[in-house]
Amino acid sequence: MQAKETLFADLVQGRAQQFQVPLYQRTYSWTEKQLRQLWTDILEQAELLESGEKASTHFLGSVVLAPSPQNEATFPRWLVVDGQQRLTTLSLALAAIRDHIADGEPDEAERIDEEYLINKRKNGSDRFRLLPTQADRAQFAAYVRGPLSEQASDGAVAAAYGFFRRKLVEAADPAAPQDVLRIEEAITSRLTLVAVTAERADNVHRIFESLNNTGLKLSQADLLRNYLFMRLPTRGERIYETYWLPLQDSLSNDELEQLMWLQLVLDGDDRVRRQDLYAAQQQRFERGEVSEAEIEAYIKELYRRGALFRRLLHPEVEPNAAVRAHLHRLDTWQAQVTYPALMLLLDRRERRDLNSAATARAMSYIESFLVRRMMCRVPTNNLNRIFQAVPGQLPLDMPVADGLHQLLSAENRFWPDDDELREKVRTAPFYKFGRGHQRKLVLQRLEESYEHPEPVDFAAAQLTIEHVMPQSPGDEWLRMLSEDVVAGESAEDLHSRLQHTLGNLTLTAVNAELSNHPFERKQDLLQGSHLEMNRRIAATERWGADEIRARADELADRAIALWPAPLRGVGRAERSRDWNLAHQVLAALPHGTWTSYGDLAAFIGSGAQAVGNHLANTPGVANAYRVLTSEGKVSDGFRWTPQDVGSDVRARLSADGVRFTANGAADPAQRLSADDLALLVGGAEDDQADVREDAAQRTSESQGEQTHADPFYLQLVAENSPERRFFRQLAADNSRETVEAVRELFARWEGLGGWINTVGHDSTGAFLMLGEASAPGSGMSPMSLTPGCGLGGSVYVAFHGLAGHESFTDHALRAELLRRLNELEGVDLQEREPGRGPDPSFQLSVLEKDRNRELLVETLTWFRDRWESRGTD
After folding, report:
1. Which 3 state secondary structure label does DSSP give 826?
2. What DSSP element (H or E) covers 780?
3. Count of CB atoms within 10 A of residue 779's CB?
4. Other CB atoms within 10 Å distance of the CB of residue 538
5. In contact, 599 and 677? CB cutoff 8 Å
6. How far apart are CA 627 and CA 633, in angstroms?
7. Burial level of 616, CB count in 10 A (0-12/13-18/19+)?
8. Residues in a beta bridge with 79
9. Helices (DSSP H) in 251-319: which residue ranges?
């Protein structure tokens, strides 16, 4: 390779030659941001020329060239391995200058054309000094031939040309005139480039890979496309035009990358991650000597499957009505995780291994698998692996649909059966699991099951989820509930347990009008509804615990009919996972918080007495002592288990940051409700849209239609979010440097693929989380941050809580986590025995030092890698 500094004029002027942007390059993609910066640099150089100053030139970047396979001694052709964005932009700028002066100075316009833009004595594509990739070629060539003012033009090439034409008009302003030819001179002789020229023996693809860690970062799809077309020297043009360009035009870059990943999965690689797509496919091609015919076959297959993939993205193009309906619902569910299985079904149908009826039946199993798991509160953390494994694990000795039914029914798939579904419909807080659009879809399907002769157009109707018994009940509601309570339970406890269950929920377009009125008022409004489920509610005389449970049983029957059950005998979910969910949420309690038996019972869909019995008889449950009575007192029945080391409960709570009032009760401001517990493990209202919907509904129930529709109130809801409260308290109790350090830490954690979960009311905490944000219990947290209460914030390491997670059951790994953290200056974490005090912690102010933040990010990267490698070691 040879490298030398050069000017644009020296690079492109002289004898006839051509710079070819290879097919594997991405299309022209500079935006106005890059164009503005370049224009500023050009004007600065033009002003220096005007003044006669001999200032240094402006370095624009590098251009890497390699001999083209079409190279001729009399007509050199070069492949632009790197730098096509710069060369294309400068050529368009010169074309704009040429057209700007064409009427007034035709000779100068002709000179610019012949020196920089065309090879005068060549024809066809050889006439252009720069030949962009096929996708940009026609439009670029049209601008080089002449202005396109009479044609409708769009795209990045047109935008760049239009940008320079506008700027040249501005430069000709009489109030501040600038010589256009000086601008041309600045472009051609004041912008320097480093031209790197490769020899034929150089590995151009390796050069390309090493260069593209700067500029507009290449995606996995970009890298794989480059690799494929570099290995198609003779067939590339035809394959690109026949298969690749139509595929590229029909999918976004992200969708194309997903299709490439799916192709690997369908071909049997059930472990490959999307971020490793390029390396995995390259490795497969380089196992042996791969011919151009084999690469062409791969691209043709990608093209064929692209048509199938578009049916997942746009279900309306699917011709079969039954299959289309399932695809629509799965698209509404946002079930991208199921794409490997769906692509397999569409692929097998196209190969005539199954018909459309069997395809729809197989999709019904996938839909049921997702819906039943959501309704029964099964965490979603392993869905990626379940569906990615389908192509490789599907039984070969039975029809495809039956094989998928059996595969998803396996013991380790946790597909709830009819008994569990019925129980969860009765008891689980449906409204606090899954995501808003998923809950609405379940209620929509249940409404459709009534087969009303005049069904509602759900696409046009503005329906929201309504709590029939409101979330904020008035005295009349509580008096009615008091008639239904059992011994040891209050009306408030019964309300907390039933309010979010499916039996108490419906869909309505008049949420604000329903408000939190007594049931008699709601009956009148529901009676006029077009939804059959609402008319049935209105026909009920009262709305108490028995009525809610009766409706839950009715809806459970319909759900069982709508969503098929798993096969018996293959395996079923362990019923103990409800308690596992309780254990997870207790381990995740932020420093300085507590919860009640009733809150925990409402969260898991159980009873307060059952929760108390379980905690009293189950050893090793983290933070069990932080479950108190609703008054904030230690239960008279609380006992340390024999396996735990007993101590004074109040002292332990104080050590954990729980404050006490004058009468000895835990501070109610630090209590986490059932809704707060749902947020701790990535519950229903994790995304802002769900938060606002729930807040708006609560407001409409208590204040009526005007407030419900008030956008100012919704803004206040967002401003009073846990994130805002966390940073407000952080700023109040810590230095500005600490606050900025935490902001940076959060940003870098999200850059590693994690997310931040902030919870609590007056006292807030923030968890660094891994896993799916929409799935309770799906992830894990290495540490939590508390802003402090006038004493400065702390970082708590979830040492004991990690022991219950798949990746960190090995004590040595948890010890390694502490060792790495102890490398931070000012940190000295000591491991404590279970039951002997809170998790290890250190002060947030430690993060003010740059080196400490770097060490912490390195530790978190190690932690994430251990998490992602679970099950593969």
Report:
1. coil
2. strand 780-786
3. 24
4. 17
5. yes
6. 9
7. middle
8. 20, 66
9. 253-266, 277-285, 292-313
% of the chain exceeding 90 in pLDDT = 37
**Cα–Cα distances in angstroms (integers) from residue 83 to residues 63, 219, 451, 502, in the given order:** 5, 17, 62, 59
Q: 690: part of which helix (H) or strand (E)?
A: helix 688-703
Rg, Å, the chain Cα set = 33
Task: Please check whether residue 847 is in contact with residue 806, taking contact to mean a CB–CB distance below 8 angstroms.
Answer: no
CB contact at 8 A, 687 and 334: no
Q: Where are the beta strands (DSSP E) in 496-546?
A: 505-508
Give DSSP secondary structure letters for 12-64. Answer: H-SSS-EEEPPTTSPPP---HHHHHHHHHHHHHHHHHHHHT--PPPEEEEEEE
Q: Which of 576, 750, 774 is nearest to 683 (CA)?
A: 774
Half-sphere exposure of 628 (CA within 13 A, CB side): 24
Alpha carbon of residue 570 to chain centroid: 33
Burial 430-453 (b: 16+ CB within 10 A, else e): bbbbbbbebbbbbbbbbbebeeee
Confidence (pLDDT) at 214: 41
**Spatial distance between the Cα atoms of 376 and 578, rounded to a whole number of angstroms:** 9
Provide the residue type at 281 as one letter: Q
130-165: b (≥16 Cβ within 10 Å) or e: bbbbbbbeebbbbbbeebeeeeeeeebbbbbbbbbb
Q: Is 292 exposed, middle or buried (0-12, 13-18, 19+ CB in 10 A)?
A: middle
pLDDT the model gives residue 500: 94
In the block, residue with structure tokens 């480093």 = 194
Q: How far apart are CA 469 and CA 491, in angstroms?
A: 12
Q: How far apart (Å, rounded) are the C-alpha atoms in residues 744 and 727? A: 13
Q: How many Cβ atoms are within 10 Å of 66's Cβ, its own excluded? A: 24
What is the H or E stretch that residue 276 is in? none
Could you tell me if 570 and 411 are in contact, meaning their C-beta atoms sit under 8 angstroms apart? yes
Question: Is residue 564 within a helix (H) or strand (E), and if so which, with residue range?
Answer: none
Beta bridge partners of 671: 594
Which residue's structure tokens are 């009819």? 418
The secondary structure of 133-173 as a DSSP string is -HHHHHHHHHHHHS--TTS---SHHHHHHHHHHHHHHHHT-
H-assigned helices in 146-250: 156-171, 180-189, 204-211, 220-230, 236-239, 245-250
CA distance 136 to 249: 12
Please name the residue that has the structure tokens 């006839």: 16
Query: Which residue shows structure tokens 């044609």?
Result: 151
pLDDT in tens, 358-391: 999 999 999 999 999 999 988 877 888 899 989 9
Report d(CA 211, CA 222) in Å as an integer.
14
Token pair listed for 832: 């404590």
Residues 108-134 have pLDDT tens digits of: 999 999 999 999 889 888 999 999 988
Taking the C-alpha atoms of residue 124 and residue 249, their distance in angstroms, rounded to an integer, is 25
The helix (run of H) or strand (run of E) holding residue 633 is none
For residue 275, CA distances in Å to 219, 220, 254, 338 come to 9, 7, 12, 18
Separation between Cα atoms, residue 748 and residue 754, nearest integer Å: 9
* Strand extents, DSSP E, 624-704: 627-628
Residue ranges of the chain with per-residue pLDDT less than 70: 1, 24, 54-55, 148-153, 173-178, 200-218, 287-288, 511-514, 570-578, 641-647, 681-722, 759-764, 772-779, 789-791, 800-801, 803-807, 832-838, 870-873
Q: Give residue 742's Cα distance to chain centre.
A: 22
Q: How far apart are the first and last CA of the chain?
A: 42
CA distances from 504 to 62, 296, 443, 499, 617 (A): 66, 58, 11, 6, 33
Nearest to 226 by CA among 203, 195, 201: 203
Q: Position of tokens 């490769």?
A: 198
